[in-house]
Amino acid sequence: MCAGVPAGGDLCSGSGRVRAKEWARVETTNFLITGVGGQGTILASDILAGVGLAGGQDVKKSDILGLAVRGGAVVGHVRWGSEVHSPIVPEGRVDYLVAFEILEGLRWLDQVRPGGVVLVNQQEIHPVTVSSGLVEYPSREVADGALQAATDEVYRVPGLEIARELGNARVLNVVLLGALSALLPVEVEVWESAVRERVPERYRELNLQAFRGGRGWLEGRE
Fold it and tell me: What DSSP assignment string belongs to 103-159?
């Protein structure tokens, strides 16, 4: 079954993805991007919204910031569709959860619909409650168990590792978008154009490399 496609439809290609020319017929696709302050969550949601608009979709988005400047949670809702009324993803209707940090991904797993997709950057950022000793950070075993219970389609993306190989850990957000792009029926040129339009000129080539690194990682797994 294609993620983001109504059950019982006939829009899937043999690979399980939606045929690009049929994309306009697909009902609303819901994305949730989550991370902590400083990880580029808002930029990522801006790029994702730009991709949808360039693809002829009606797009709504909303960014929700906690104490972002202190490393608090940041959540971006992005919705694509032929007609989208609300920028907020309805409860339990997330098609694609993109998490820049493991714990932040776990917080939102209950919002992923059955058959949804989760991409999670393999990075731990300990919140104050953990660093102060009030609670423990989930072990990898606990995190993996929760992810497997939520959906069959989980991608544990080495986003931070790929970004560091490029010389700048801050582009991990675009690495994750690159991985996401490999799951969606939108031409790569559209994605790269959206990156160019929303990233300062001096960082464009680095971000394009990050995007290609993430996309290449996921494509190499198939």
Answer: HHHHHTGGGEEEEEEEEEES-----HHHHTTSSPPPPHHHHHHHHHHH-SEEEEE-H
**Of 16, 47, 21, whose CA–CA distance to 178 is shortest?**
47
26-124+138-219 adopts what CATH topology? Pyruvate-ferredoxin Oxidoreductase; domain 3 (3.40.920)
Selection from 207, 180, 163, 216 nearest residue 48 by Cα: 180
Q: How far apart are CA 127 and CA 133, in angstroms?
A: 10
Q: Is 23 helix (H, G, I), strand (E, B) or coil?
A: helix
Question: H-type helices in 55-100, by residue range?
Answer: none
- Three-state DSSP at 73 gives strand
pLDDT attached to residue 26: 56
DSSP class of residue 75? E
How would you classify the pairing of strands 94-99 and 73-81? Answer: unpaired
- 217 close to 179: Cβ distance less than 8 angstroms: yes
As a whole number of angstroms, the distance between CA 120 and CA 104 comes to 9
Helix (H, G, I), strand (E, B) or coil at 89: coil
Read off the pLDDT of residues 124-143 as tens digits, 9 standing for 90 and up: 988 888 888 888 999 999 99
